[in-house]
Design brief:
With 248 residues, this protein is an alpha/beta fold. It has helices spanning 3-10, 20-33, 52-56, 81-89, 130-141, 154-164, 167-171, 176-197; strands spanning 18-19, 42-47, 66-70, 97-102, 105-107, 116-117, 126-127, 205-215, 222-233, 239-241. The strands form 2 sheets. Strands 1, 2, 3, 4, 5, 8, 9 and 10 form an 8-stranded mixed β-sheet that branches. Strands 6-7 form a two-stranded antiparallel sheet. α3 (52-56) links the parallel β2 (42-47) and β3 (66-70). This is Limiting CO2-inducible protein B/C beta carbonyic anhydrase domain-containing protein. Residues 19-232 form the Limiting CO2-inducible protein B/C beta carbonyic anhydrase domain. InterPro entries: LCIB/C_CA.
């Protein structure tokens, strides 16, 4: 299947989606041309779901960066917290940059079904993100208890609580799994920005790329829709958005 045919399927749900390969290429061009940095001067952290599909579909050219440091747990929430962000910040080249890619993921099959994918070696589809779908099912059934977070299932319980706080918004949406993913993105974006504000960086720039990562069937690859692309000058504290470069 041609790339334009794949994008046509994904863009029915996410009109601004790009392949992850194209997104990484755009980002590398930007840091070289605008920030005058080489990829090997940039330490990358990702806060994406620990689902194995995200490792399988990780874009190869991203390996030109240093890292990645893994911040995310179920559906990309940055469970490593301040300790993880602080550890990651201490690994960055002095004259380089921090690049943080974060957000939830969702599946879209090549037949256009959302919330699932066909994985390698499987004949039937499975949930993607399974944690989001599981939490949504409990929300629909009314079996989430407000404030209930346990040691045995801490990450899943956290995702459940994020959805519970936006219960009416999600349940009244035309496509609840799509809306639940948006709610989770907003929670991740808020947390990442709070962690960045509370962390000291000994480098030139902090680059924040917030997105919804879109997985598809094993022969389709992955995509994303960029929701934030901010560059923070560490010395001056100036923050600029360059999100439009992904919509050119």
């Amino acid at each position: 299947m041609l790339k334009k045919q794949k994008l046509a399927i994904i863009r029915k749900w996410y009109p601004n989606a790009l392949t992850t390969i194209d997104s990484v290429n755009i980002l590398i061009d930007f840091v070289e041309n605008n920030l005058e940095l080489e990829p090997n001067q940039i330490m990358v952290a990702d806060s994406v779901c620990s689902d194995d599909v995200n490792s399988i579909q990780y874009p190869a050219r991203a390996q030109e960066f240093l890292g990645p440091f893994k911040m995310g747990g179920l559906n990309g929430f940055p469970f490593t917290g301040l300790t993880g962000m602080g550890a990651f910040a201490s690994h960055v080249p002095d004259n380089g940059a921090v690049y943080i890619y974060y957000g939830p993921h969702i599946g879209i099959t090549k037949s256009g079904d959302i919330g699932e994918i066909q994985r390698f070696g499987q004949s039937k589809n499975s949930g993607c993100c399974g944690a989001a779908k599981g939490a949504l099912a409990k929300l629909i059934d009314g079996t989430i208890t407000e404030g209930n977070i346990t040691d045995m299932d801490y990450q899943m319980n956290t995702i459940e609580q994020i959805l519970f706080k936006q219960k009416e918004r999600i349940l009244n949406a035309q496509t609840p799994i799509l809306e639940a993913t948006e709610v989770i993105y907003e929670a991740i974006d808020e947390r990442i920005n709070t962690l960045v504000e509370k962390t000291s960086y000994n480098c030139k720039y902090v680059i924040l790329v917030g997105a919804v990562l879109i997985n598809s069937d094993s022969d389709m690859g992955s995509f994303n829709t960029i929701k934030r692309f901010d560059v923070i000058n560490v010395a001056t504290k100036e923050r600029k958005s360059f999100k439009n470069i992904f919509f050119g």
